């Protein structure tokens, strides 16, 4: 089983990768389209040169890799994908052959976290329009909504929400997903030193902290949050609760 988990940045996407990576039956991959995305856009991100050297830059080569044999021959392969990495020119037919799930977080919280690491931001940078497009593609093919989990639900009830996610994916829940050893992993992207300081200290999902809302945003970010809110709410309506409802 190949699982493509689609998230925007500044979510708990790396912690989710830790959870799946702690399963004995599961291999994990960290943002395999990152180098292709940077090469195509020319954007300057932290450790850009390291990223470009660490992964294929051609999206076709990335697709061949993520649809090829699973690392270590594991029966489950969890792939952490950033929605904004899927540029319009990148082929998407491969998505129809994997189990897709969506990890969401409120745009206000994402924006406030994002600008702590990178001053300039657009709506495309936080991946909400792309996430909605990918969701629609998958839902249209399935004839139903694919699994959607909200980061706050995961943090509030890790066992219940992850169990519901596993049911939605057709995968048995493993309690090993609830905790993991601290530290960096060989499977982490080379960009880990710039982004993964918190998750490297973690040993499980931390309780949710109060998230700031629209009124807490700087004026410059409010139009982005207002534009992103309907996209988030469209996916949020389909999120799995602790009982899978």
TrEMBL record:
Keywords: Amino-acid biosynthesis, Branched-chain amino acid biosynthesis, Hydrolase. It comes from the Bacteria. The keyword Hydrolase applies. SUPFAM superfamilies: P-loop containing nucleoside triphosphate hydrolases. It holds the Pfam family Sulfotransfer_5. GO terms for molecular function: hydrolase activity. InterPro entries: Class-IV_PLP-Dep_Aminotrnsfr, P-loop_NTPase. The keyword Amino-acid biosynthesis applies. GO terms for biological process: branched-chain amino acid biosynthetic process. Belongs to the class-IV pyridoxal-phosphate-dependent aminotransferase family. This is HAD family hydrolase. It comes from Lichenibacterium ramalinae.
């Amino acid at each position: 089983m190949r699982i493509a988990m689609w998230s925007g940045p500044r979510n708990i996407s790396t912690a989710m990768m830790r959870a799946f990576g702690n399963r004995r039956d599961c291999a994990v991959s960290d943002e395999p389209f990152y180098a292709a995305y940077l090469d195509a856009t020319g954007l300057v991100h932290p450790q850009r040169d390291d990223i470009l050297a660490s992964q294929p830059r051609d999206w076709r080569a990335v697709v061949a890799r993520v649809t090829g044999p699973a690392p270590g021959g594991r029966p489950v392969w969890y792939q952490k994908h950033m929605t904004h990495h899927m540029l319009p020119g990148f082929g998407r037919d491969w998505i129809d052959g994997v189990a897709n799930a969506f990890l969401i977080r409120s745009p206000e919280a994402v924006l406030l976290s994002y600008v702590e690491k990178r001053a300039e931001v657009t709506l495309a940078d936080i991946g909400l329009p792309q996430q909605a497009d990918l969701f629609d593609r998958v839902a249209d093919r399935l004839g139903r909504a694919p699994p959607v989990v909200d980061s706050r639900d995961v943090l509030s009830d890790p066992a219940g929400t992850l169990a519901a996610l596993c049911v939605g994916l057709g995968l048995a829940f493993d309690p090993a997903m609830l905790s993991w050893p601290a530290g960096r992993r060989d499977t982490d992207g080379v960009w880990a030193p710039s982004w993964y300081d918190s998750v490297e200290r973690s040993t499980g999902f931390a309780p949710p902290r109060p998230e700031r809302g629209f009124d807490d945003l700087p004026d410059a970010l409010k139009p982005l949050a207002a534009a992103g809110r309907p996209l988030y709410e469209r996916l949020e309506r389909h999120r799995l609760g602790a009982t899978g409802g």
